[in-house]
Write a structure and sequence with these properties.
InterPro entries: Cbr1-like_FAD-bd_dom, FAD-bd_FR_type, FNR_nucleotide-bd, Globin, Globin-like_sf, Globin/Proto, Hmp, OxRdtase_FAD/NAD-bd. The protein has eleven helices and twelve strands. The chain is an alpha/beta fold. It has three domains: about 140 residues, Globins (Globin-like), CATH 1.10.490; about 100 residues, Elongation Factor Tu (Ef-tu), domain 3; about 120 residues, Nucleotide-binding domain of ferredoxin-NADP reductase (FNR) module (Rossmann fold), CATH 3.40.50.80. The strands form three sheets. Strands 10-9-8-7-11-12 form a six-stranded parallel β-sheet, sandwiched between helices. The protein is globular, with a radius of gyration of 22 Å.
Amino acid sequence: MTTTITSGLDERTRDIIKSTVPVLAEHGEAITTHFYKRMFADHPELKNIFNMVHQKEGKQPRALANAVYAAAKHIDDLTVIAPAAEKIAEKHVSLNIKAEHYPIVGKYLLIAIEEVLGDAVTDEVIDAWGAAYQEIADLFIKIEKEKYDHSPWNDFINFSIAGKVKESEEITSFYLKPVDHRALPSFKPGQYLTIKAEIPGEKYTHLRQYSLSDAPNENHFRISVKKESGRGELPAGIVSSWLHDQVQEGDIIPVSAPAGDFYLDTEKDCPIVLLSGGVGLTPLLSMKKTAEKLHPGRKIYFIHAARNGSVHALKDEMNGENTFIVYEKPSDEDQAYDRKGIVDLEWLKTVVPKEADFYFCGPEGFMRAINTSLKDWGVPGERINYEFFGPQGNLD
């Protein structure tokens, strides 16, 4: 769904906002980094919502800077940024962001603009950005209310770990069932769950999204989680390590409703090509299993890339005549794979049709290479679909 966004700002205000575009291009990330620092200092409770690893890595400030820049650039016609707005709103709902959070964000965004730019920013500019922020915030609140109204539940509800299965050296699957025995809602294959990790010894909770790795069913949700390695005060793998090392069958984890705008179009029957790298297989495996169930005759091509067989999870669920396994560095024990090396365009042309819908997910380098290959091949943009794990990035 694409939301039409029209601006109610007067021409003078829009002109002022557009005049700040070059400044945002140069200083946007400095502004958003300062924004988060000031906001968390005064409202540390918001650390329960935001991913502090992404803060530390600079991913979240960078993503916000890009969003602010795009809003300023297209202030005359915000419909241009509607697809990005939908993605952001979908993520906000999964994190249980509410209307009362927006005034806090607006306050500290304006403070950051003033403090970073200093004398270069006038009261007129601050007033214009205050009006623009309020309008954009109101639109997000409206979009998110519609999503909340259609969600099977809001906030987080408790799920028990009904099963824990080691799938490879790095990936473990967790089978989740609601504690209150409610009927499980369906979801769109490719979507994710948000879990609230309440880790012993941690001052704040950690919210993380994990793709649903099974087709919709009445028995369970399944997520398959890679144990990330990280070091330092707040390592990248703090939640995945907790899941792998501490969470056991019978434990309780709060979970939000399925969400996400990367999913298989189940209304179509054209061929689909699923390309995954590493743990990026999780949403694509859900797509594969769902498509096989709904459209048994639909042509499905699945290409999975991994370092070797020891880290290749869920192998038994990847069977099929059009499934291809690519190991970059196969071990001596690896036998069941189709290609050594990487997925490149020359080989891709020999195993999948160009006239298909393409879905891919994996490490950013893998996705960048696949995206470039598909564009070089001439695959239309509307047939190219991908998912970032974390803040939205840019593959171009």
